Amino acid sequence: MTKQQPTLLVTGGAGFIGSNFIHYYLEKYPDTRLLNIDKLTYAGSTDNVREVETLENYHFIHGDITDEVLVGDIFTDYDITGVIHFAAESHVDRSIKDAKAFVASNVFGTLTLLQAARKDWENKGVLSKRRFHHISTDEVYGSLGETGAFSESTPYDPRNPYSASKASANMFVKSFGHTYGMNVVISSSSNNYGPRQHAEKLIPTVIQKALAGEQIPIYGDGKNVRDWLYVADHCSALDTIYHQGNPLETYNVGGGNEKTNIDMAGEICTILDELVPQYRTIESYKDLITFTTDRKGHDRRYAVDDRKLRNALGWKPTEDFHSGLRKTVEWYVNQWKARPVH
Fold it and tell me: What is the CATH number of the domain that holds 160?
């Protein structure tokens, strides 16, 4: 890839949502020059972008967004026309055990990117024309009761170190828009599901534990509620927001699929009962479900009101929840079957 050609910078593109977005974006916009920087921690893998790594218009940099010299060099060496910023520490349990890495990556890393982009775009006289799109989460809003949904105007009320770091990053992004006139936009999505998700997340955990014949751990009473969004639908929403969203705006992205954790686990087990009965030594994989001590600060319910995105920009999800979940389970089952057996 020629360095001085117009290039889109994607951070954290070897992770779950980032890698799905890169596949989506390069397929939809095959002439795009795309640069992916990822630290390749436990949550990222070059296997997630293996299918695009030979493309001439794709380039990968193994690096840390907190490295000010590296990030500065990227903007010097490449003509970065926009940033889509996924890179983040995102596992709540890990943030509870050690918050420092979350502050470093999610807060300082975001600030490092903002400063480098502002400096480069100011020097080129294009600060208001080039977009910085920050990917956030509905967890910044805190926890809901049995009714209601988070809107873009809901005050931040983070309940764990992860969501606190993301709320802080959001504020830095908005501040650079207000202070310097940067063309920034933020999107906050509900829980994603689909291929390439890290093994520690709920859906991959349920599938892998079930296929291994191990107990499937569910926090507390299992009645914590999440709104589930198929990752490909999220990618199309990000595409819409990046190209059409108004500067300084936040857009919520939801799937409209509220499920308790216990119901989600049960639905996955039902699909597994049908797809891979040969790995089952019990009547149903559901018999492996067990309850464990609840997570500290475990938010009871998330749900987002995404009417702003739907009405103002015309986006809507296209994947039916049940078909999306089945596709997801099938993908993980195929990965399980293809694993090396020692």
Answer: 3.40.50.720
